[in-house]
Specification:
The chain has about 280 residues and is α/β, with parallel strands linked by helices. It contains eight helices and twelve strands.
Length: about 280
């Protein structure tokens, strides 16, 4: 039984972190299969090159890549905006192949003459600019925290019959400096967008899904952050002139578990299919 697809003008996904233990690739794949987008913005940190290891690359992670490649063969316009965890791709900025482009930032005209400015957001991160080794160490610690969180949730749900926990969210919300950084990040992005007269500024990086209007004495803009697929499992959707925040929830989980997936091919078969799609795209 196939999933019913929703038509979406633009979908924005960021901070998937494929190649890490914290990535919810199965949930993301379920979401990708549920939509029929005209344009896709991958707003950074899709593949976590910082923490990539040949020892950990599950089939579900390869399936996400394969689905994106499938969209490319269907001529769905895809912009891959580079982030800090996939910064290695920045040397390929400007690369185009078919409907696929690698960029560092993106400006798109939308309905009613409005304009949206997309970028990952690590440019505002002082740690990234001056202490990259510290940022990488923090990324490893964050991945470990996500694993501990999963164990805690298993105990909470299966043994104690209680609700889900989010250790990283509790830590972020309880540490004033983290809250201050997020607030400063959002304000800085909005101030630059207002100065350049962009109606929307769309970011990722801080794993904090958000949709709100921010104003200063020069004007206002709509600040949007697509969140992530490690903790929040969120994406931004633009359709018929308006933005909405999609969030994978318990209802989606029940649907995903009930949905009969196709027979799971081996990693070699997935890789061969990926190459076949790639060659098809190059030839067309």
């Amino acid at each position: 039984m196939k999933q019913k697809k929703r038509n979406v003008d633009i979908v924005v996904i960021s901070d998937v972190h494929l190649g890490t233990y914290g990535c919810h690739a199965r949930e993301l794949l379920f979401y990708l299969k549920s939509i029929n987008p005209k344009l896709v913005v991958l707003n950074g940190d899709i593949v976590d090159i910082w923490q990539f290891s040949k020892r950990y690359w599950p089939k579900s992670h390869m399936k996400v890549i394969k689905h994106l490649m499938h969209w490319m063969t269907k001529r769905v316009r895809i912009y891959y905006i580079t982030g800090n965890h996939d910064e290695m791709l920045r040397k390929f900025s400007g690369f185009k192949m078919g409907s696929f482009s690698i960029v560092d930032k993106l400006i798109l005209p939308l309905d009613e003459g409005k304009t949206a400015w997309f970028f990952h957001g690590d440019v505002f991160d002082v740690t990234m600019q001056h202490s990259k080794w510290l940022a990488k160490l923090g990324a490893s610690g964050y991945d470990l925290l996500i694993l501990i969180n999963r164990l805690a949730n298993f105990i909470s749900l299966k043994i104690l019959n209680k609700g889900k926990l989010s250790l990283s969210k509790r830590i972020k919300n309880s540490v004033k400096s983290a809250v201050s950084f997020i607030t400063s990040f959002e304000k800085t992005a909005a101030d630059i967008a207002i100065y350049n007269q962009y109606d929307y500024v769309v970011c990722g990086h801080i794993h904090q899904p958000e949709m709100r209007k921010i104003s200063n004495n020069q004007g206002s803009t709509i600040y949007l952050n697509s969140g992530d697929w490690v903790e929040n499992l969120t994406a931004l959707e633009y359709n018929k002139g308006s933005w909405v925040m999609y969030k994978f929830d318990e209802t989606d989980m029940l649907k995903m578990n009930a949905h009969k997936e196709e027979e799971d091919p081996s990693s070699n078969e997935l890789f061969e299919n990926l190459l076949a799609n790639f060659n098809t795209m190059k030839a067309s």
